[in-house]
Design goal:
Elements: E1 3-7, E2 10-13, E3 18-25, E4 33-39, E5 46-51, E6 58-60, E7 68-73, E8 78-83, E9 92-99, E10 115-116, E11 120-125
């Protein structure tokens, strides 16, 4: 079965960095666009960033532009989220997700994603 497993979360001070990884199995990884979403307590899940199956196209929510970078290694079936200059408002559970409808660009809508990881907690202290 399809599994997406996030790792790399943790507690960091404001201004610090973390790198999340999401290892995929049970699917042809290079055939999927990949996205990262996050959900803070009491809030809805929100789009953070996404990358096309080839890695050639990315997009970001405005609040993380210039601080976060998404990348992927199709040989390792892994997508990454490098997070720099972290802020307390970045505190959330971060989820990776796989989008199978690749005739469209990577989507910002969680409904367009077919598979989800279990999430990784990121906590940024002030």
């Amino acid at each position: 079965q399809v599994q997406l497993v996030e790792s790399g979360g943790g507690l960091v001070q404001a201004g610090g960095s973390l790198r999340l990884s999401c290892a995929a199995s049970g699917l042809t990884f290079s055939a999927y666009h990949m996205g990262w979403f996050r959900q803070a307590p009491g809030k809805e899940r929100e789009f953070v960033t996404a990358i096309s199956r080839s890695g050639g196209t990315t997009n970001y929510v405005d609040s993380v532009k210039g601080r976060f970078t998404i990348s992927r290694n199709n040989a390792k079936n892994t997508v990454y989220l490098q997070m720099n200059v972290l802020k307390p408002e970045d505190t959330a559970v971060y989820y990776c997700a796989a989008q199978g409808q690749v005739s469209r660009p990577p989507s910002r809508d969680p409904k367009d994603y077919n598979y989800w990881g279990q999430g990784a907690q990121v906590t940024v202290s002030s």
